[in-house]
Amino acid sequence: MDFLSPWNSDLNFDYYIRMHEKLIGREWFIEDLSYLVLKTDYRGVLFAAEMGFGKSAIVSNIAYAGDKRLPGYPLYSKLVSIHVCRFDSHITLKPGMFVKNMAAGIAQKFPEYGNIIHLDRMAHDYLFTEKCFEDPQGCFDFGILSPLQKMQGIPDKLIVLMDALDECIEYWHANKFTLLYEKIPRLPKFIKILCTSRNISQIREKLPPGIILYDNPYIKEKSTEDIKQYIEFR
Ligand SMILES: Nc1ncnc2c1ncn2[C@@H]1O[C@H](COP(=O)(O)OP(=O)(O)O)[C@@H](O)[C@H]1O
Ligand SMILES: [Mg+2]
User: Does residue 5 lie in a domain region?
Assistant: First the structure.
């Protein structure tokens, strides 16, 4: 059976992602992220910074960096899914939504994975029903980990982007982010996680294995340069 019609996730974050204006500066930052995500063996990177730093603006920039000349292009070209946690939008906080989104993104880019899901009763059962919300852990196992294991083609890197992890924390508190702690290490190495969060200790000090915290000793100086650029631009 050919996977002819890739399915879309029930939720798409375009509206939130598009609400940002053109990004000023921050090229250095996007280049650092590209290096960490695409050229190292870390499973992913968490960028933690205060509210208003421009984390979501950077995510938006990467999501629309379709032009090869843009600094965000290397990340954009490997992006399979974007999840945005919004404390004011209940459904974005559901771990099952994150799982479905990720599966839909991989299926869109890799028809082989889509075919496997369609032929696998368990994967199908979880991803296309309420089960994924009832049991997001199982949904991740049967809808993502198991089908990925069955794939014969090994894609180059695939990036899963999550913005504002801190806004999900209240909701995900019950399972203490087990979804991320337990499942990320079991993903194949070609899947990379890039996430942003407010700089809060709850998240910073309990990163999933293999995820590093972005750090750059020159962040203050570089940010000051960006602000100068911003003022000149306006
Ligand atoms: N470098 C930048 N260039 C242009 N606009 C920016 C930049 N950084 C932040 N902004 C704008 O400032 C506001 C706050 O940024 P946002 O990305 O929402 O911050 P955060 O997600 O870190 O809380 C948004 O309207 C965003 O579009
Ligand atoms: Mg934000």
Answer: no
- For 191, list phi and psi in degrees, rounded to 5: -95, 125
Instruction: Report the CATH number at residue 47.
Output: 3.40.50.300
Q: Which neighbouring-strand residues pair with 191?
A: 158
Instruction: Please determine, for residue 219, whether its predicted confidence score (pLDDT) is greater than 60.
Output: yes
User: Which helix or strand (DSSP H or E) is residue 112 part of?
Assistant: helix 111-119
- Give the mutation target among 22, 55, 56, 59 for probing the ligand 1 site: most ligand atoms within 8 A of CB: 56
Question: Structural domain of residue 173, as residue ranges?
Answer: 14-233
Q: Report CA(97)–ligand 1 centroid distance (Å).
A: 25
Judge whether 196 lies within some domain. yes
Buried b (16+ CB within 10 A) or exposed e, 123-160: bbebbeeebbbebbebbbbbbbebbbeebeeebebbbb
Statement: the pTM of the whole predicted model exceeds 0.85: yes
| Residue 18 token pair | 């598009």
Element (H, E) at 213: strand 211-213
Residue 3 confidence (pLDDT): 43
Which residues on neighbouring strands pair with residue 82, listed in sequence order? 161
How far apart are the C-alpha atoms of 137 and 197, rounded to whole Å? 22
What is the CA(163)–ligand 1 centre distance, in A?
A: 13
pLDDT, residue 172, reads 66
pLDDT at position 1: 36
